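Researcher: Next sequence.
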Amino acid sequence: MKQTLVTFNLGKQGLTEGFIDALEKTFKKHNLVKVTILRSATRDKAQVREMAQEICFELKKRYQKDFTAKIIGFTFYIKKWRKLKK
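Model: Next structure:
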């Protein structure tokens, strides 16, 4: 059975606690999430990289599992790993 890819749009409010909470709830059932950065949020690639790293860091603190982000333009994919890397 094919699993659907869950997509989030990150807008002008940026990273909020509610956005992180929604990602946390999604990762209870899914291992991969797509986050699209809208133009109203930023057009700076360095900021996109920082956002992806911050999301992975916050999720790692909450879940005690590793999360990695693959950045492609103004979109990034966050993957949840089974174990915490040492």
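Model: The two ends are 32 Å apart (CA to CA). The longest strand covers residues 32-37.
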